[in-house]
Amino acid sequence: MISTRALTYRYQSGPELFFADTEVAQGGVLLLRGASGSGKSTWLALAAGLLTPSSGQITVADQAMQTLSRLASDAWRAKTIGFLPQKLHLSAALTVHENLAMAQWAAGQSQNEDALRHALTALGVDHLAQRKPAQLSGGQAQRVALARAVLLAPKVLLADEPTASLDDESASAALSLLRQTAERASATLVIATHDSRVASFFSGHVNLQTLFCTTQPA
Ligand SMILES: Nc1ncnc2c1ncn2[C@@H]1O[C@H](COP(=O)(O)OP(=O)(O)OP(=O)(O)O)[C@@H](O)[C@H]1O
């Protein structure tokens, strides 16, 4: 479950952002919509514990994020959150396979080769396992980052524009994997998106909510 109350964030040399109160049940899907610059990525960073709220509360998987220290939040994130950020943050020095193995290690899990292969295969990038990120196309890198995000069957999946550089077939595979992974683990899924394909894909979901971000106070 994720809930927010009177949540705001002010960048040091940027705008103050205000977010409407939200409550998403465990297993629910939340779409973050809104114009470019309206705060969707910021909301995800707050939910992932990468940013600390300026005021208000955000609780993610029973954890009040505003009370976590930076160190505790890193450990909590590795175990709890599957995060697909807009900038993919794949380690350039590591192969695709090593990038995923490192995510398992960071979460304190022993290497699970089956899970790793399954995640890469489901997204059609298993043949790229020995490549370095610089040797991937934009869409391939995005699918590898998505495989890493779903690898640990996290309780919360956060995806920032997961279909941005994907063609229809790859977008559909990526959304299916996000949905299946979330359903298998009863995870809460949050997707920030401009892409109308995402809204159409989830339109029949029984537990779907949409949060429209604006730069105005809620
Ligand atoms: N590090 C930063 N310092 C200052 N301002 C920032 C910083 N990061 C983001 N902002 C500003 O905060 C606002 C919200 O940015 P954010 O990236 O959350 O929006 P978004 O809705 O995800 O945008 P997009 O759809 O273009 O990805 C924007 O006005 C942006 O310029």
Give the secondary structure arrangement, pairings included.
Blueprint: E1 2-10, E2 16-19, E3 22-24, E4 29-33, H1 40-47, E5 55-60, E6 63-64, H2 70-80, E7 81-84, H3 96-106, H4 113-122, H5 138-150, E8 156-160, H6 168-184, E9 188-192, H7 196-201, E10 208-212
Helix pairs in contact: 4-5, 5-6
Shape assignment: globular
- Main sheet properties: 5 strands, antiparallel
The chain-level mean pLDDT equals 91
- The CATH architecture designation is 3-Layer(aba) Sandwich
Identify the bound ligands: adenosine-5'-triphosphate
Task: Count up the helices.
Answer: 7
> Could you name the CATH homologous superfamily?
P-loop containing nucleotide triphosphate hydrolases
Secondary-structure element order, as H and E?
EEEEHEEHEHHHEHEHE
What's the CATH class, please? Alpha Beta
Residue stretches low in confidence (pLDDT < 50, at least 5 long) are none
The CATH topology: Rossmann fold
